[in-house]
Amino acid sequence: MRNRTKFTLSTIALALCSSVAIAQEDETGFFAKADTTLAHDDNIYRVTDDLAQSDTYISVAPELKLIGGFGKQRFELSYDGDYSKFSDSDDADFADHNFKAKLNFEHTLRLSTRLEAGYQKEHEEPGYINRIQLDMTEYNKFDQDFLLAGLAYGSEKAIGRFSVNYRKTTRDYTTNNLDFLDFTSDQITGRFTYRLAPNTKVYLETILTEYDYSPGQNFELDNTYKRYRAGFSWDFTGKLTGDINIGYQERNYEQVNIQDIDGLAYDGQITWAINSYTKLISKATRESVDSSLEEAGGFLRSTYSIFLSHELTELLKLTADAGYSNDELVFSSDREDERYSYKVGVEYELYRNITLAGSYTYEERDSTFEIANYTANVLSLSINISLED
């Protein structure tokens, strides 16, 4: 009873905080949005059904963005948050933060530079990593910051454009004794883009990333991840837009007994506005991901998803999406994971800037390693309030 009383009081407090946060408006270039969601999840840590723990939680997710400029220079400041309070499992509570700042400089008609910096305080969704934590009582949480500097020669509308970016990222896990997953990475991305038509482009891109992990007990995950790809992007009068690329990837580990990975890589998204009230979005990705298991290298993950939205009326919208992913754990021939997710929802625009929504989500992991199997069902109700100039 005490936990439920605390949960009720927290619900009221968070709702009030949400109302205050979204009340700041009418500032030039300012956008604000807040989602308040009440949900019930029958497997909050995504473990095998015998150990599943259900709970009800409330989540408040504010988004703030300020965009402005001086002369030809542009800046953007943004903040995304996610504060969740559970009814019974106090240890499951989390408060995620994501701060970003961007600066774009146009030095000449052809030469431009950009700077970005950010800080994140996040938690990992346990269903999307390959680590099995059956005794989990708290989410894996980490702090992450990054700094990016970029240079481009050629405007966005130029026939040819070359750009290069350098990004440094540092991640530090703060819960569940995962220090061996702490890392610093240095990434260089080079891209050449050629415009075939006003809204149609092809490009060649190379991404080189060096990962420096904290040493574990008798192992270390340091590796170099290389991707080479060719892509095609288009926008056909806003009805059919997309960006797809295909290429080759390789991830080479410094420790000789950890298996390297190489092979086909691709990434793409296509959006089809079937008509003025129906939209279809499809995505596909094949990438290498570092394992979250001790003494194990990466794995190949192929992910496919489709999202459909349909407006029954100007105020009422139905949504549905489905996803599938396959994890090929190259360090173990005895394990392969398949993930399935389905979601259906309804949205009703109560006022111009207030939307009510409800949804049902089903998740499943079907693994050849039986203890990794799980299912989860989530029911949620939410209210979204947005303010925009």
What does this structure look like?
It is built from one helix and 18 strands. With 389 residues, the chain is mostly beta strands. The protein has one domain (2-388): Porin (Beta Barrel), CATH 2.40.160. The protein has an 18-stranded antiparallel beta barrel. The longest helix has 20 residues, at 2-21. It is globular, with a radius of gyration of 23 Å.
In short:
The chain is mostly beta strands and 389 residues long.
Radius of gyration, Cα only, in angstroms?
A: 23 Å
Q: Helix- and strand-based class?
A: mainly beta
CATH topology type: Porin
Largest sheet: 18 strands, antiparallel, barrel
* Approximate shape: globular
Question: How many helix segments?
Answer: 1
Query: How many β-strands, per DSSP?
Result: 18
CATH class: Mainly Beta
**Uncertain residue ranges:** 4-28
Provide the succession of SSEs.
Answer: HEEEEEEEEEEEEEEEEEE
- Count of the domains: 1
